[in-house]
Amino acid sequence: MIKTAILTLLAIATSFSFFLFPLPPKSFYHSLFISSSLSDNASISHHLYTLTRRPHVAGTQANAEAANYVLSTLNSYNIPSHIASYQVLLTYPISRSLTLKPNRADPPVHFELRQEIYDGDPYADVAGEVLPTFHAYAKSGTVSGLVVYANYGRVEDFDTLKEMGVNVSGCIVLARYGQIFRGSIVQNAMKAGAVGAVLYTDRKDYGGGGGDAKWFPDGKWMPPSGVQVGSLYNGSGDPTTPGWASTEGCERISEEEVEIIGDVPLIPSLPISAADGEKIMESIGGPGNQTIATIQNVIGVIEGKEEPDRFVILGNHRDAWTFGAVDPNSGTAALLEVASRLKKLQKFGWRPRRTIVLCNWDAEEYGLIGSTEWVEENKEMLSSRAVAYLNVDIGVGGAGFHASSTPQLDELLKKATQQVKDPDNSSQTIYESWLGSSNSPVIGRLGGGGSDYAAFVQHIGVPASDMSFGEGYPVYHSMYDDFIWMKKFGDPMFHRHVAVASVWGLLALRLADDRILPFNYLSYALELQKSAKDLEDQVLGKGISLAPLFKSIAELEEVAANIETRKKVMPLKRQRVWTLYSHGVLYNMKFGELLEWSDMPRLSSVAS
User: Fold this and answer.
1) What is the SS3 assignment for 49?
2) Can you say where in the cell this protein is located (predicted)?
3) Which of 69, 217, 545, 568 pairs with 21 at a CA distance of 20 to 30 A?
């Protein structure tokens, strides 16, 4: 009886303590978000294992099950979530074949076109679910011809062939991956007059260069039978609904009209392995299946308190060509880790100033389809309400931090990486390691359609970023991109996953919570100056003056500098030292720093 009374009294006292004192400042929660007590590499590992247990190509039942897993996980974190479905044009292989006829005297060689299972492969039971190797949106048909080797299939490679007197017309081009987008290789071959293209993964680029290099599972390199599959589509969104969403019953353009637009090659092509690519080929063929399939974006929403109609959007795609442990589900696991930590912050009383939207896209691999359809459907709302879009496609593929953004987010990216420890060197921050790397630290730009940021940047002009650990990995888009590869070579302890989630979430928190949005347009002005100078060099001597352009950029720089100065001299509010005791951990924070830990269950505030 006495014990019950004491427990009741403690509960009442704890409740009163939350009402007696105001909630901590937002910076407290930001520091708490990146603390080790809230991160959970074991949960990340579990998410990745679950998501990659089966191949899950867009439009398949396996990918729908993966969507339900993400949905149920977000809902379990008390983040209201739903699925946004679209009916889009996807292609799947029905049959394909490749035959080599060395000469008239020798019998033809028929290639098996399959990726081999290795001894002890834990995914052998589901290997049959891996789609046959193919190029999405490749032209169906059967062609034959002499083989012409075109190196990486770049424009300059075809120019070299022309200078050598090699006529590509009527031939089948053999080219290797590694320098340009696969769709551009096939387009370049088509423009040169080729009737077909075969793309292979050269051992020099993906197999460790031969010699003593070990391939997976003994090493990180692509096995000789490994094949890089992927899409040839050079656009974004459903090819049959350019500019509008692929909702049920919507208007669509015809296949002929899709071809006229020019975003898909008009010749057949196949991806093949290094082993097959090292042989000379002469014929290629096989039909494909085009179908309208249902794709599913998973959308979770944490509503903002003061500005609920302003959205900070985080996105990663879920669909993969095979198991997708690196691309993309290392990013999906990191997204769920961010969601988990945000749930924990809410238990401590945090609520974002602006709404945070968590998006798990579908059909990115086919051509950024899920994200583009969502943007097209919600274009008016997003163009006026979206604050920023933060993308993580491949979360982890190896060591080394890499980031790209629109320029106004440069400084925020740097500040976020200054607060998170390097997962491979705990004695310094990610930013310090970044400074010492070959990137030093170069923030790339978001040109082209490399990932799901494209629709946000190019369609509606929303500030955006993209980040990852590692740059390129040998088993890209092959059936060997699985949980075992990640566990052995990509991130054995899942510390890089924790780190990318920390940076990603910290960016989101600053954008969602800061009273004044943390954009710095000085970086934008400097970037515009560089571009203007490049343009000036191109028009030199052509009687074109860029003086008005430089004048406008100078005015932007002046205004941006004035804003930054005013932000720095704004009156500082009275600071508090906050101490939060919960779950056996004590956080003592002033000016956003975690200082010490202990264990007592109470909350207190001291003015300073």
Assistant:
1) helix
2) Endomembrane system
3) 568
Please, which pLDDT band fits residue 440 given cuts at 50, 70 and 90?
low
| 96, 102, 337 from 110: Cα distances, Å | 11, 11, 47
- Cα–Cα dist 479/485, whole Å: 10
Residue 65 appears among annotated catalytic residues: no
Closest C-alpha among 579, 547, 583, 63 to residue 296: 63
Lookup: tokens for 543:
């009687």
Domains 98-283 and 298-519 equal at CATH topology level: no
Alpha carbons 480 and 191: distance in angstroms, whole number: 33
Distance CA 31, CA 131 (A): 44
What pLDDT digit, counting tens, does each position of 241-259 carry? Answer: 999 999 999 999 999 999 9
Q: What are φ and ψ of residue 425, in 5° steps?
A: -160, 90
The structural domains of the chain, with segments of one domain joined by +, span 40-84, 98-283, 298-519, 523-589
Residue of 282, 364, 376, 527 marked active site? 364
What pLDDT was estimated at residue 571?
56
Q: In which element (H, E) is residue 423 found?
A: none
What pTM, to 2 d.p., does this model score? 0.88
Q: Confirm if 465 and 387 have CB atoms less than 8 A apart.
A: no
Classified by CATH at the fold level, domain 298-519 comes out as Aminopeptidase (3.40.630)
